Amino acid sequence: MKDSVYRAPKGTRDLVWPDSERRRSFINLFAEIAGSSGYAEIVLPMFEHREVFQRLGDGTDVVRKEMYDFEDKGGRNIALRPEQTASIVRSYVENRPSLPWKVWYAGPNFRYERAQKGRFRQFDQVGLEALGPEDPHLDIEVIAIAWRFYEALGLRKVNLQLNSIGTSQDRVRYIEALSRYLENQKEFLSKESQDTFAVNPLRVLDSKRDEDVQVISEAPSILDHLSDGAQSHFNEVQEGLEKLAIPYIVKPTLVRGLDYYVKTTFEFTSESIDAAQDAIGGGGRYDGLAAEMGAPETPGVGFALGLDRTLMACDAEKSFPEPEHMLEIFVVDTTGGANALVITDELRQEGFKVDRSFDDRSMKAQMKAADKSGAKIAVIVGDDEVSNGVVTIRDLRGKGGQEEIASESMIADLRKKLR
RNA sequence: GUGGCCGUAGCUCAGCCCGGUUAGAGCACCUGUUUGUGGUACAGGAUGUCGGGGGUUCAAAUCCCCUCGGUCACCCCA
Questions:
Q1: Which nucleotide is nearest to A368 (CA to C1')?
Q2: Which nucleotides of B are covered by protein (CB under 7 A)?
């Protein structure tokens, strides 16, 4: 194996064609859908002052063990962003755009954790956030955009899990009730969950360990602790989803890993992913976050979708296929390359996707390269063509017929064949 | 942070248990069969610090120890 220094660091990898192009198409499709819903792109810094992400919650794993942080040369505590919602709210607090403020984003996030299938230290997300309205219609819009995006990708086996975790006051009351219950059941909990309980009782509900399942299933439900306002908000969200025919299941134990959520939380999972990591997207409402960062109370709601995991689901469902070819035309020149130089440039200026060989290789080698390139047509120039003022146009896809075309009509002919 | 599995040619892997001829296969690559013509076939060719270090031995890809890396899972999340 190569020296371990000259390889991508743990949890990162190179995306080369066709994966790189598929990623770009994915983001383009998302941009189209978000853009046509009134969301504008925002490009954020990839790192922030660590305190920005501290807002995700001191008891969360993201803050406690997954923060990719360091001190810069100026002595500042910097963290690579583990997600973008906090950055967006920071940007809102800093720039105070007029409301409602609807933005979408795409780009890498960073979490320092052990990589596994569908989990990387650098991973791409697309997402959007809407700040201002408290209206449950906005929750519905946000969920619907994600849902329509999955549909546009061709995904069929996506499940929407929905919950409300109430207002922060509701949650305080709920956590009291939950803690009382868990305290009594403590001996039946796994050791890990007992530790979790001490740090953040809510997160015990997330445990998938067999010992905990029974205790969790009989635990008090957050849905029994919602205030009237939160309850009617939740009801409206559900009614709206039904109006849009978006199927969902209410999952009272869905608390999500970040502390800033209130009221609506949701998560998308894929049934088709063959890996432990099947959550392909998630989000919720965070009405208190802007105020925590020093702005007036400003409600917000949004989601983020994992690009890699979503594409894993696409692979499994054979949807959103990778591109097949990059090229249309391959220029073969047996006169030393000078003709290829001019012809490829000319064709490229005309908008064709064109490549050629270098190093004056044999015609056979050039034809092989033409075939491998996936191009549909070879434009062949040899001494005969040059002296007759023609080029040979050869079909690379079908049986391989070819014809000579006068150089002047080459572009018109190729346009006819390819467009 | 914890555990399982795996590191041999550019890629996928065999060989390792039972140490011993020049370390193999397929794919990919290059050349030719083809006096300008790819995709099929055939013939030939190039390619390896057997992840790294140490140890045992007359002899290590093969046995032992350490280490680095990858991968999957737990935790948790996208």
A1: B38
A2: 1-3, 7-9, 29-32, 34, 36-39, 49, 51, 68-78
The mean of the pLDDT values for chain A is: 91
Q: Which nucleotide is at minimal CA–C1' distance from A3? A: B51
ipTM for the assembly: 0.84
SS3 call for A72:
coil
Residues A167 and A178 sit within 8 Å (Cβ to Cβ): no
Measured CA to C1', what is the nucleotide nearest A333?
Answer: B36
Q: Is the pLDDT of residue A406 over 90?
A: yes
The rounded distance, in Å, linking the Cα atoms of A157 and A308 is 16
- pLDDT tens digits, one per residue of A311-357: 999 998 989 988 888 899 999 999 999 999 999 999 999 999 999 99
Domain positions in chain A are 7-166+226-316, 329-418
Whether the domain at A7-166+226-316 and the domain at A329-418 fall into the same CATH topology: no
pLDDT digits 0-9 by tens, A92-151: 999 999 999 999 999 999 999 888 888 899 999 999 999 999 999 999 999 999 999 999
Calculate the angstrom distance between C1' of B43 and CA of A380: 29
* Protein residue nearest nucleotide B36, by CA to C1': A363
Identify the H or E element spanning A305: strand A300-306
Confirm or reject CATH 3.40.50.300 for domain A329-418, answering yes or no. Answer: no
Strand partners, A162: A250, A266
Spatial distance from the CA of A319 to the C1' of B57 (Å): 58
Radius of gyration for chain A, computed over Cα atoms and rounded to the nearest angstrom: 28
CATH architecture under which domain A7-166+226-316 falls: 2-Layer Sandwich (3.30)
Residue burial A340-353, b: 16+ Cβ < 10 Å; e: rest: beebbeebeeeebb
